[in-house]
Amino acid sequence: MALEINVGPPRLAISAGYAVLISEPDGQISWPTDKGFYAADTRLISSWQIYADGEPFDLLNGGNVAYYASRIFLLNRALETRQGKVAAGAVGLSLGRYLQQGMHEDLDLTNHTQQRVQFNLEIALRSDFADLFEVKSGHVVRRGRITTDWSESHARLRAEYINKDFKRAVTVRIVNATADPVYANGRISFLVDLPPGGSWHACLLYDVTIGDTTYHASTECIDHVGGSEAGHSLDSWQDAVLKLETNNEEFYRFYKQSVDDMAALRLPIEGTDHKEFVPAAGVPWFVALFGRDSLLVSLQTAMVYPSFARGALKVLGARQATRRDDYRDAEPGKIMHELRRGELAHFKLIPHTPYYGTADATILYLIVLHNAWRCTGDPSLLKEFMPVAEKCLAWIDQYGDRDGDGFQEYETRSSAGYENMGWKDSGEALVYPDGSLVKGPKATCELQGYVYDAWLRMAQIFDALGKPARARNLRRKATILFDRFNEAFWDEETGFYAFCLDGEKRPVLSVASNPGHLLWSGIVPRERAGRVVARLMQPDMWSGWGIRTLSADHPAYNPHSYQNGSVWPHDNALIALGFRRYGFSAEAARIARDVSGAAAFFALHQMPELYSGLQQNPTNFPVQYLGANVPQAWAAGSAFSIVEMTVGFQPDASAGKLYLDPHLPPWITELTIQNLSVGQAVYDLRFWRDGEATRWEVLKGNPTSVIQRSYASGPEMWT
User: Which of 67, 102, 228, 635 could staple 217 via S-S, CB 3.0–4.6 A?
Assistant: First the structure.
């Protein structure tokens, strides 16, 4: 595509684990700003600027060379020095950075003139140690004390923040420098003396201290970063994931970038050898453990990297709530929403220690456990995580259903809790048809679908464990829910489901994307599915770049809002999966094409968290939401959901079978996937269009274990 769109303030972003660096395109961090070098939810560097005799450099170009590394090329401005004038562009500066534990920074100067050049290279640093929550809100309160110490003998600058027992520090070590540094007036300075054609180099190593633990930056220069620990980690990831080839270059680039994005969002699991991971939610604001996000991404990556599921189940299960704590919206058996490690969380000024304000993560935990078992066939998964699952099932009945009416509803009990606890969690997301905010407790439609799906999946697990009575009970409950839900939420006049029930059990008939998830869950009767699909594909919902979160005809519609008319890629991917499962392959392919086409407009084909709900036409393009996380796990995972939908992936590893229901759309006529793991088997598969039909063959693996079977939906999904 000739046009690539970057909407919003330009930036460079690199990340590794819990560390993130967000800078201007020229590598600088210009105060005041929300950019900076962050680790564990604390901003360690809040201002970073570089000068030649007080003059800034001009940007030539810059970009990421990997998700954890960037390189920037700059030129000097005209200088007046003691030796005479230095013309603009005479000296080139290469700024290289990468993250590994701490941050490694390379400074390389080259004199491109035929005369000696001498000037002071100055780096102005500032550390505010602000909590990420306060940076994001724009209201930073300093509660502790910052001290700075310069050691000339060790060429080391240390800035430290202490508030009672909360401690953070960043130590800048200068090594391999051509000239000795000095520190004065808040700046590290070097006297640079370059002969004609000469070069100059220095490394700055930023060591990070979190509490009593210091993480030391790598000493390897960026030219050797491919052989570093971070480089080897990326190589291992790329070897492990599903490989894809297709004749559609647009989708191939989207898929490949999504694989790289997911690598950037891996969080190492504490207590392991850093070879087990759980996905973070997004850069820069959500580099943390999230319940809903980690679980949905585990579903999205079932074909691509099934090990994510075990990591998510392990980490979230270990933090399952054991008692009621209203400040944190915790209840026995509930799965957490968000865990933070900054100053506000440390002193419990926010409830994220962790915070449990999510109505869907506990239900999704059961769905992920079942899906992971289907993908791996590993009985140890069930042995390890069934105690957690039992508590999740109990939570659904005892706490998820707050009033005993058989439906899941939510309402915070916390003074600092969230108004909305479904995936649409902004305070303005749930609205009545007149645009006013829905009053709780709220029972969103998709929560009921998730429970229905979870009960049927867990029934299959209980069958496998030799507990048929438990399985029958869950199927009975699912049947009752199916009937009661379709009576209470369905609106015959509009042919659509209510967005939610409000606190007085009145259906809220605002037209939103949430009912699309009901198709994914299978709670929609087959005779109603076509009407749901048709309503979602009407022009007020379908933008041409995907399905909007809220109808364009609604009074509260704003295409540039967070969740009141914007388009979310992961939302559309789940809806497309639901379309396929009910046999609406053409509509599913249309939505998939929308999402893939939108990705093509963003630089690097890197999908943002969300984009505007503006109507597609020949004169516009998808507009990125201001402040969207990029990369973002759900958004990247939408590419993987499209692959799953396209091939009709239905694993049954415990039976040694892989079921497929492939349907290649006209815009993807050839598709080959390699390294698909199902249990102990590894498959390479080729798909191609033959007229209107889709053919396939097994290139690697036992062909007799791969069987074509139509997608099931409704009560028969997990029987």
Answer: 102
Strand runs (DSSP E) across 112-155, as ranges? Answer: 117-126, 145-151
Structure letter (DSSP) for residue 179:
S
- How does pLDDT run across 632-688, given as a tens digit for each residue? 999 999 999 999 999 999 999 999 999 999 999 999 999 999 999 999 999 999 999
Token output for 474: 């869950």
- Given a contact cutoff of 8 angstroms between Cβ atoms, the answer to whether 613 and 566 are in contact is yes
- Residues 147 and 160: their CA atoms lie apart, in Å, by 5
Q: What is the mean pLDDT of residues 476-485?
A: 98
For every residue of 580-591, DSSP letters joined together read HHTT-HHHHHHH
Q: Which of 236, 240, 239, 220 is nearest to 228 (CA)?
A: 220
- When computed from its CA atoms, the radius of gyration of the chain, rounded to whole angstroms, is 27
Per-residue pLDDT for 1 more than 50? no
Name the token pair of 82. Answer: 């003691």
Q: List strands edge to edge, sheet with 650-652.
A: 650-652, 657-660, 706-708
Residue 273, class by beta-carbon neighbours within 10 Å (0-12 exposed, 13-18 middle, 19+ buried)? Answer: exposed
Q: Going by C-beta distance under 8 Å and a sequence separation of 6 or more, which residues neighbour residue 250?
A: 1, 596, 597, 599, 600, 605
- Taking alpha carbons only, the member of 580, 597, 587 closest to residue 519 is 580
Picking from 373, 279, 294, 393, the residue whose alpha carbon sits closest to that of residue 336 is: 294
Mean pLDDT of 577-606: 94
pLDDT tens per residue across span 409-430: 999 999 999 999 999 999 999 9
- Average per-residue pLDDT for the chain: 95
**Cα 393 off chain centre by:** 27
Cα(706)–Cα(451) distance, rounded to whole angstroms?
Answer: 30
Q: At what angle do helices 585-599 and 249-264 cross, to 10 degrees?
A: 70
Q: What would the mean pLDDT of 27-38 be, rounded to a whole number?
A: 96
Q: How many CB atoms lie within 10 A of CB 139?
A: 9
Question: Is 92 exposed, middle or buried, given 0-12, 13-18 or 19+ CB atoms closer than 10 A?
Answer: middle
Taking the CB of residue 502, how many other CB atoms lie within 10 A of it?
19
pLDDT for the residue 273: 59
Read off the tokens for 449: 């679908």
Cβ contact 204:107 at 8 Å: yes
